[in-house]
Amino acid sequence: MVTHFQQACYDLLKQIPAGKVTTYAEIAHALGGKAYRAVGTAMNKNPNPVIVPCHRVVNSDGRLGQYAFGCERKQHLLESEGVRVVDGKVQDFEQLRFRFN
DNA sequence: CTCATGACTTTTT
DNA sequence: AAAAAAGCCATGA
Would you say A16 and A83 are in contact if contact means Cβ atoms under 8 Å apart? Predict the structure, then answer.
């Protein structure tokens, strides 16, 4: 089942263009709170991996973080979109970072 | 309602 | 700098 909170997260994710990334904290704040932990939980339950680009969500320090289908898969997906990743960390993270309106 | 848990973040050792 | 602890919050039992 999909809760309202989860749906909100997915809607935000769908706004992120390819080649860009965001953080759990960013999403949580966009939702008006600090539920960054809950955001991760929502991603883990990701119902449609294709429609929702949950691989574009990384930790606040630029690290990749976890991924339901394996963190390696996450890294390759990002690299195939043009995001350079070195030793589990996003390069030029601050620049590639997408900001919500 | 209360309790435990986790794709997190920040502070303190 | 690196590791541990504390703080956070939605979700499911």
Answer: no
Specify whether A54 is catalytic. yes
Q: Measure A1 CA to B10 C1' (Å).
A: 32
| pLDDT per position as a tens digit, A23-39 | 999 999 999 999 999 99
Nucleotides in chain B near protein beta carbons (<7 Å): 5-10
CATH for A64: 1.10.10.10
- Model pTM? 0.94
Residue A49 lies in a domain: yes
